[in-house]
Amino acid sequence: MKIITYNIHKGMDAHNKDTLNELLSFLKKINADVICLQEVLESIHYKILNDLNIKGYFFKTVELKGDNYGIAIYFIECVKYTDGFYLSSKKEQRGFIHTQFFINNKLVNIINTHLGLNEEERKIQIEEIYSYVNDLRGKIIICGDFNQTNIKIKDYYDLSILFSCENIETFQPSKSRIDYIFMSKNLRPSRYKVEFINLSDHYPVIGEFII
User: What is the domain range of residue 103?
Assistant: First the structure.
């Protein structure tokens, strides 16, 4: 199973140049089983659904004039369950999407999130996600833009560390790693990669698992 997490910066690069067409081409080429995106406009969400001919779910966290803004997940498997949840937030509303499906008759849970800019806020948000996933059964992946370096989640492996890639940046402006893929201990990882493409102010992070 191949999963990608990517903050797409509303379809713009680090200099706010429109990169949506290139982004769509990249997502087609990468051919992931699960695509987790952050900073998604709802209008872009529908374009992704149509252009990639894929199923998906958009969760609004902020209402903008003429559009909505949030996080989204896309998948090729038959999904058992998907829903979005709000996290405690100080300024801009944050949240996560939980998607659940079977791969090779094994239950897999994907959590896609985008955490806040305040450190104390993020601590509470991580605790809320951890409390939520504690009630889940099956295999669990938690991924997204955590807006912080050196994040740890109890009982979960950081995929980048397992592949000795913890010093590879995912966020261009600060040249730091703030985008993560965490996995439960019952998963078998086979690959971790950061794609250095300039379609956003973040780089996409890819993880692969044998299920």
Answer: 2-210
